[in-house]
Write a structure and sequence with these properties.
Shape: globular
Structural class: mainly beta
Helix content: under 10%
Strand content: over 45%
Number of helices: 0
Distance between the termini: 40 Å
Radius of gyration: 13 Å
Number of strands: 11
Order of helices and strands: EEEEEEEEEEE
Amino acid sequence: QVQFVESGGGLVQPGGSLRLSCAASGFTLGSYTMSWRRQAPGKGRELVAQISSGGSPYYVNSVKGRFTISRDKAKNTLYLQMNSLKPEDTAVYYCGVYSLAAWGQGTQVTVSS
C-alpha cells in the first residue's frame, strides 16, 4: 500500500525558510514522477514542484529560484526546501504521485508576521 507522510510545516515570518519532508512507504522513489502541490484557503490544489523518475526538477514560476525539490533514495524521502517565503505561499502542502492519485495528508505552512 502506497503511503506518504508529510512533515516540517509551521508558522514562519516572511523571508523565512522551511524544509518539508515526505516519507514514502510501499513505494520506491524514482519509480514515478513525484510532486509537491499546495492548496490555499478557498482555492484549488496547484502544482508547486515535481521531480521526474530520472531526477529532473520542475518548478512553477511563482516559486522558481526560491524552492528546491530533492529526494534521498536511501531514506525513501522527498524534500521541499522553501526559502524567501511570502504570505502568498501560505497553504497546505501535499506530496504524492499524480499518476497514481496517491497523496499524503498534507502539512500546513503559514507565512505571516
